[in-house]
Design brief:
373 residues; six-stranded antiparallel β-barrel; alpha+beta; 3 domains
Length: 373
């Protein structure tokens, strides 16, 4: 049988485990290096080109789009047909801009997605085919060639004075529509060194990351340069295999630090608040004033045999109603959860909360960055 002392020990161990697990749950989560940083040189490149989408059902550019007409004339001339641009009618053709992103380490023959956008007066690109279009980078060199059917994921139908539209019919995509023709040389190492760059620069995160990397490799391989860059020395054991060094580096975990920030989107009423946002003691009064203005029309009819005329007389009624304001005191050091609970308690809507937060910041009681997008 289990003695009372053994039972007491088991209970104590369970309580310790519960307290430890509760404390661990409150800790910030750790993330991998590959999720918050990248190697300098590991970047995408923008590509763009000018092309033609053909096969449209009368929804292409009109005759007023001279760019479209001139491009069609130039294309026909390459095929041995010489026609005057004034003789062309190109309602089944649309001039488009073709854009794509060339990922790092893309090799010849790889395919990438492209986006096709009309820059004329075309009504829709539905059912169109993009003709072969060279895609150039900022240096003017051709790095990919795009061609294929355009998918817009919507439609634009009109008739009889009615019109129905779904999504945006003048912008489409071609999955895997471009073939890489030229490779971009990527240089990651500078001798025996690599540069690791944080996606969100922060001094605290850089300091923690340097300590964790050195602890993982049990050597001084990392040194912070500034709030976004860490210079890495490739260890001698990885000198001939830097890929394995980077693969192990990406698995190192760190607890990132964030800036106390409140992000507000006034168009949609969206509010995102970081957990480190704090406020000083402040009182918030919430209320609303509703004003209703209504107009009724009365007919003024003169007496028979009088010289008066029948008139329509408007009568306007104005009604104002103000809800009782509710007062809520937010104590000093309140966290984001406290703020949300308090504002919800007084019945504040997202748009009300936006106005309240702006007023709290104006009062100097919001300890965090307020960003409006």
């Amino acid at each position: 049988m289990v003695s009372r002392l053994q039972t007491l020990c088991i209970v104590i161990l369970l309580l310790v485990a519960l307290v430890t697990s509760a404390g661990a749950a409150e800790l910030e989560p750790t993330v991998r290096v590959k999720d918050i940083a990248h190697l300098k040189g590991d970047r995408i490149n923008q590509l763009t080109g000018l092309g033609l989408v053909v096969g449209l059902d009368g929804t292409g550019d009109g005759s007023g789009s001279m760019a479209n007409v001139q491009m069609v004339a130039n294309m026909l001339q390459r095929f041995g047909l010489t026609l005057s641009p004034q003789d062309l009618r190109t309602r089944n053709v649309a001039a488009v801009m073709v854009t794509a992103e060339l990922p790092p380490f893309a090799r010849e023959g790889d395919t990438i997605d492209v986006t096709v956008s009309s820059f004329g007066d075309a009504k829709s690109l539905q059912g169109g085919i993009l003709l072969m279009t060279p895609l150039r980078a900022a240096d003017g060199q051709v790095y990919a060639v795009a061609q294929g059917p355009v998918s817009i994921g919507g439609f634009n139908v009109s008739g009889g004075g009615s019109r129905v539209q779904k999504n945006h019919p003048t912008v489409g995509r071609i999955p895997g529509g471009a073939t890489v023709e030229r490779e971009v040389q990527v240089t990651l190492t500078n001798g025996n060194y690599l540069d690791l760059v944080l996606d969100n620069p922060d001094f605290t995160t850089v300091s923690r990351l340097v300590k964790n990397i050195n602890a993982a490799f049990q050597a001084e391989v990392a040194k912070a340069v500034d709030k976004s860059t860490i210079k890495l020395r490739i260890p001698d054991s990885y000198r001939d295999d830097p890929v394995s060094f980077v693969a192990r580096l990406e698995r190192v975990e760190v607890q990132p630090d964030t800036v106390a920030k409140v992000v507000i989107n006034e168009r949609t009423g969206t509010i995102v608040m970081g957990q480190d946002v704090r406020i000083s003691t402040v009182a918030v009064a919430h209320g609303s004033l509703s004003v209703t203005i209504g107009t009724q029309y009365e007919v003024s009819q003169p007496w028979p045999d009088s010289e008066g005329t029948t008139q329509v007389v408007p009568e306007t009624e104005v009604e104002a109603k103000e809800e009782e304001a509710k007062l809520m005191v937010l104590p000093a050091g309140s966290s984001v959860s406290d703020v949300v609970k308090a504002l919800n308690a007084i019945g504040a809507t997202p748009r009300d909360i936006i106005a309240i937060l702006q007023a709290v910041q104006a009062a100097g009681a919001l300890h965090g960055e307020l960003e409006i997008i």
